[in-house]
Task: structure prediction
Amino acid sequence: MRPLTLRRLLWICGTLSLVLLAVVVAALKLGAVPISVSDLVLSLGRVAIGRSDQLPSEYRLIVFELRLPRILLGILVGAALSVSGAGFQALLRNPLADPYVLGVSSGAALGAILSLIASPHLPLLTPVAAFAGAALTIAAVYFLGRRKGQLDGGTLLLAGIITASFLSAVIMFLMTTLSSRDYRGMAFWQMGDLSTPLAEGLRWVFVLVLIVAGGAIYTTAADLNLLLTGEREAMHLGVHVTRVKLVVYLAASILTGMAVSVSGAIGYVGLLAPHLMRMLFGSDYRLLIPTSALGGAIIVVLADTLARTIVAPTELPVGAMTAMVGAPVFIYLLRRGLQ
Amino acid sequence: MTLLAAGQARAQGAASRRDPGTDLPATPKLEVTDEAGRRVNVPQPVRRIVSLAPSLTETVYALGAQERLVGVTDYCDYPPEAQMKPKVGGTINPNLEQVVALRPDLVLATRALNRRETVEALEHLGIAAYATDPRSVEGVLVSTARLAEVIGAGERGEALAANLRARLAELKRLLSGRPARRVLFVVWSDPLVSIGRGTFLADALRWAGAESVVDSSQDWPRLALEEVVHLQPEYLVFASSHSEEVERDFEALRERPGWRSLEAVRQRRMAVISDAVNRPSPRLVDAIEQLARQLHPDAFETKPENRSPGVGTRGGTGPDEEFESDEREEACACAR
Result:
């Protein structure tokens, strides 16, 4: 492992931020309604000098009221899912852990749906219930995935996949039996979708939670590095294993719950981003967590831009895009792990 | 109820309706409450309309306002020329960018097909979105008249509703005293999906002198075949624009276990009606008449002199053509 200096951390994160910015600009340009580069630059310029009122109202609405909030939502969701994915991978010492594969996203979705059924008019209850669903699911998967007191990689994944399928069946049951007129459709909860903008009031709550929960995981980054070598070894090196695991467990569940409550179950992002970043920059968690956040944001914004444009004006769910890339990668990693 | 809503709307609109030529921020607004209970400020006059459901597209055409219809969904296929209008994607996930780019004064949505989130997002963007929610045949009439008022085609809407109401009254007269046929409305045959009691389709069956053998609180219940065998409906009713296809499917069903135990299948007692019955639009009445003729042919064959002119001739041969011939010509004349 190459030694991590602050300089290297800033360089890498700075470069990734520039990539993200480029992706965001491309995503602002592309969409069902064609907008030329010059028009986009012009309108961005006008906004930059505080003259957004001079824009033609369609451009203002399409670029700044529709595309931009959706892109920002994609960034938040991508970062949250990737950091929680990286967290689960360390917590379970399994590189294939992903909130979607482990059923955590389905648990969060079920929590969110139950809260919508119980009281549809409390907007803050949905993310909280989604968090509870995520936390309960990962706890269940954790205990189901143990054999003879030891966490077993294959059993864990099986437990996760079966839990996901069970929870999906419950969601299907609820959506079929209850009059589903006013709820978001099945596709939203099972495939993920960014077309619904975040409620104004929730925007800052979400940003704050992302920073706090992501930061909480980041404080454990050095310990997570040691934990990778084994729990007992880490304990001998002075790591407070139970505390670290509890922090990561809660924070990663919060992040998943938050993401699922606003965008449904977008799969494989929590697997793709950390793996890509590991391949590029190594597995030091102090670097992996911020790079995963940025990488996840890039992946989701890219995937959503594709979902918006390839069959425009019809939109695909973003989860279909991430799964088309993520599932083969998952299989590849699984087979490589078996050898 | 219609008159009340219409009257209210007119009272509120009268004060603010003036100078249709300007597009300044001070555009006069008509405040209405839509069928989802939301307050909507509709700019007046409504010059650009986007429809987010096939039934709404049909309704706009029936009201003669098609010139003002600037966007429709991928599924809006009736009347055929509606397919030439700019598309905004599907009903569940319409492309909001495309909607915005069409600069609509008003977007029409329906609770059965569109999502609340879509309507809320449009509202957030400052675009008036009016949602309908008809749940019965009468509801379709009321809803149509109200919608007509909102888009400034009130007289046309009242005339249309009155015409439809007269046709329904005539139908009721013809069918009075006849026992309702017990039917199974087949929404989908594999897996078998029928209709619940709360749908406007169940109500449409009642108007056509039929009753659904299925009594479910769900709108689109999935049924076990054994339950249908137990219920033994007198007729199977299919809705499709391709009746040959249905007949082919029906022949296939005759071979299949379960289905072949149905008396209605063995005796080929089936009715195929226009798929207009699936859409809460004015054409629903055509489909109801069509079904009534197939289920109660004797009510229509005898005493032709009793039929009032212009009413009895509808619905028998093909509702599509009729819509073409009289309704729409009127509509075009009106718009010009």
